[in-house]
Design a protein that fits this description.
Number of helices: 10
Helix content: 10-25%
CATH topology of the largest domain: Alkaline Phosphatase, subunit A
CATH class of the largest domain: Alpha Beta
Structural class: alpha/beta
Largest sheet: 11 strands, mixed
CATH architecture of the largest domain: 3-Layer(aba) Sandwich
Length: about 475
């Protein structure tokens, strides 16, 4: 591995499927030349997974190394104006980088909650509020990226094109005060939550704005902080619904609007790469490209999951198996492929390993280093299991998927069973990678063994506390 600590750029697409990039699916209808080039110059993982088949829980896992379903929150998504799900005292990935001498930047979709100041004081001092009409958007925002380890933040509170408020935030302040109401036309778009927006808000240019900010962060760093490395967490809005693209990218994909959104993701990757090249730091930078969960259904015959069963919000592989590519010259061999398993929840332990940072026992409870796998130096320490859920775990209608090796258990909550009982399915991903044959009835001992392990993991304070039971 390189002795010099690299810059790190972590690019997170929103709802890009395993079968969307052409380097994962030769029959993809989407042009992904920049993503494919990353893969040709680095390592492409074929067994990488999001911590959840939904966005907020996965982002929580990336930032904290902990499964979101261990939190007391009773709903899987951070809805508009909800408070932070990461308390300021919890160690984050950004804090690890900052305490290791890095300058840290967060660009794009946050979706982990913020504290908005109240302007309505009736009878007592209400410092913060979750009621849109009571928010004073001119005041400092708390509990966000700047309070959780980032030196710089530019982005949106939630899903950038479908969650109010529709405005940008820079560090702790709203860039343009949202005073207009979303139109009936906008409210009719899929997934859109009505609310306040800035007068100049444009859904079509959100990701080009984020790209400019990400590149600007790199440029400023080289200009002003060349003596230290940087960590950039770049969370795109695309290809999340609604599928609205800037004019220059429309018609790029044979899939249609959804494909064009994925082509926009590829364009953003290209912009970051070009900026790293321009500043002569491309080969001094570890670049990760991945997605927060599985995709929406492909259009025009496009296979967004690359043949895997299930989509976003599903416990099957298509819901949480994701593209994961690492370019790291000098440490990662070009054009290689790895079938080593990993979870995005592993990012905390992995980068702590890279930085020789000692993670305390009360942090990163579900995170395992995959640095050896990334660098092609052999497998990492075994974990008790690989786990993902669908995001509805705390509302009593949730599903879990859990793997030990390549035997996979899927648990369905009683509310989803006509008999009101917890139901299990079992799959052998070696013989049946597309999860077509449920083995639960014919392999009851395997079901019981995996069920007991799942129960142990959920009861423990973290997976790291659970010994592997092979």
């Amino acid at each position: 591995m390189n002795a010099k600590r690299p810059n790190v750029v972590f690019i997170l697409a929103d709802d890009m499927g395993y079968g969307d990039p052409q380097c994962y699916n030769a029959e993809s209808l989407i042009p992904t030349a920049h993503i494919d080039r990353l893969a040709s110059e680095g390592v492409r993982f074929t067994d990488a997974h999001s911590g959840c088949a939904l966005c907020t829980p996965t982002r929580y896992g990336i930032m904290t190394g902990r499964c979101y379903w261990r939190t007391p929150k009773r709903h899987s998504l951070v809805m508009p104006y909800e408070p932070p799900v990461i308390p300021e005292e919890r160690l984050t990935l950004a804090t690890i980088f900052r305490e290791s001498g890095y300058r840290t930047g967060c660009i794009g979709k946050w979706h982990l909650g913020l504290l908005h100041r109240s302007k309505k004081l009736e009878g007592f001092q209400r410092l913060f509020t979750t009621i849109e009409d009571e928010i004073d958007f001119s005041k400092e925002i708390a509990g966000g990226p700047i309070d959780l380890g980032f030196d710089y933040f530019f982005g949106t509170a939630g899903c950038s094109t479908s969650d109010a408020p529709y405005c940008y935030i820079r560090n702790r302040h709203t860039v343009a005060i949202p005073t207009a109401r979303t139109s009936e036309q906008m409210n009719a778009q899929p997934g859109v939550y009505p609310g306040l927006m800035a007068e100049d808000w444009d859904q079509e240019t959100v990701d080009t704005t984020f790209a400019a900010e990400a590149c600007g962060f790199i440029d400023r760093h080289v200009r002003e902080h060349a003596d230290k490395p940087f960590f950039l967490y770049y969370a795109l809005s695309a290809p999340h619904i609604p599928w609205l693209t800037p004019k220059f990218i429309r018609g790029t994909s044979r899939e249609g609007p959804r494909g064009d959104m994925n082509a926009l993701v590829d364009w953003c990757v290209g912009e970051v790469r070009a900026t790293l090249e321009k500043n002569a730091i491309l080969d001094d930078t570890l670049v990760v490209f991945t997605s927060d969960n599985g995709p929406q259904k492909g259009q025009n015959g496009h296979d967004a999951t690359g043949g895997l069963r299930g989509l976003k919000n599903s416990p099957y592989e298509g819901g949480h198996r994701i593209p994961f590519i690492v370019r790291w010259p000098g440490s990662v061999a070009s054009g290689t492929t790895s079938d080593d398993p990993l979870s995005l929840t592993d990012m905390m332990a992995t980068f702590a390993d890279l930085l020789d940072y000692d993670v305390p026992a009360n942090a990163g409870e579900d995170s395992f280093s995959v640095l050896r796998s990334i660098a092609g130096r052999g497998k990492d320490d075994p974990r008790p299991c690989l786990i993902a859920d669908t995001g509805w775990h705390a509302s009593e209608i949730g599903n879990f998927s859990m793997r030990r090796g390549l035997m996979k258990l899927v648990e369905f909550n009683p509310r989803e069973d006509q008999n009101g009982q917890t139901r299990y399915e079992l799959y052998d991903l070696v013989a049946d990678p597309h999860e077509k044959t449920d083995l639960a009835a014919s392999h009851p001992a395997d079901v019981e063994s995996l069920k007991q392990l799942l129960d142990r993991v959920r009861a423990a304070r973290g997976m790291r506390a659970v010994q592997s039971s092979r």
